[in-house]
Amino acid sequence: MRFPAAVLRAYDGPFTVEEVALASGPADGEVLVRIAGCGLCRTDLAVRRSAGRSPLPAVLGHEGAGVVEATGGAATGLRAGDHVVLSFDSCGQCRGCLDAAPAYCDSFAALNLFGGRAEHAARFTDAAGSALAPRWFGQSSFAGYALVPARNAVRVDPALPLALLGPLGCGFLTGAGAVLNSFRVGPGDTLVVLGAGAVGLAAVMAATAAGAVTVAVDRHPERLALAERFGALPLPATASGLPERVARLTDGGARYALDTTASAPLINDALRSLRPTGRLGLVARLGAELPLETGTLDRGRSISHICEGDAVPGLLIPRLTALWQAGRFPFDALIRTYPLTAINEAEHDCETGRVVKPVLIPGS
């Protein structure tokens, strides 16, 4: 089986759209999915800075959505024709997975970032017959088709705009999940979101849907305008006295803060913006040491990392699509679509902030 895919061959090189081959169909517990659309996430682009830890050449992409073409046995729970959103991989057997915390799977890094399972090797090959790296996040969905473990695939209503749903499997899942799962935000709660990109704006939408008072902090006026459109109080990151401004907007301090920036100064400001016993969640990977200023963790404040929104994708993705259908989670307003052949343009627009969430369409 041959189809187009975007291949990254060098950490500092462009993507090249090539014909690739799939050596075999789905094995037991797998499904073959025809990709309708795949979000481009900053985690895909972080491979360039991974110091060689993620193997190349590879087909990346981990926010895919599409139609099931074939299944590896009835035990998958899916059948041909099902519309699915694809999410991250997990082993399904470790303590984290059995405790309904698949984002903290013992094998998360190996399965999603650094090589997958041994049996995945060489199932994708390029036109010359050379092997491409094992499945990225169990998907490698910058392609016309993806071969995925069935537990990665979440069935969705076929009436939904399938090509746009892929980011619900990671970026939007992370922001919304942090609010709805990690913090369990409810009516009247107060939240400050630092960074109004795809993850931060998904958090804003989820918090508004939950009835919270939300402050959004960003240095780009156009991102703040989007946050305000989705129900947040906008606050420029360049403003002096950020904790005091947040305290005024939240009647004494926020109960929760979500940082998507990995900026040490903003993280310290976020901690100072919290009321006593407040909680700060970090979703971005820190690239350096995080020096905490004196007093930032006083009075019961806490800080923790949140992976994939603490989500069970099969539960949260249907919740988010239901909110979208009710007009309460308008994630599609953040999306700009590109043909797969324009992946390098999409990467540039993502890195420069011209677009919040690019989605690549293989068939266009």
UniProtKB/TrEMBL annotation:
Keyword terms of this UniProt record: Membrane, Metal-binding, Oxidoreductase, Transmembrane, Transmembrane helix, Zinc
Taxon lineage: Bacteria, Bacillati, Actinomycetota, Actinomycetes, Kitasatosporales
Protein name: Alcohol dehydrogenase
PANTHER family: NAD-DEPENDENT ALCOHOL DEHYDROGENASE, S-NITROSOMYCOTHIOL REDUCTASE MSCR
Family recorded in the similarity comment: Belongs to the zinc-containing alcohol dehydrogenase family.
Pfam (any one): ADH_zinc_N
TM helices/strands, residue ranges: 159-180, 192-217
Zinc recorded as keyword: yes
Signal peptide start-end: none
Gene3D superfamilies registered for this protein in UniProt: Medium-chain alcohol dehydrogenases, catalytic domain (3.90.180.10), NAD(P)-binding Rossmann-like Domain (3.40.50.720)
Organism: Streptomyces griseoviridis
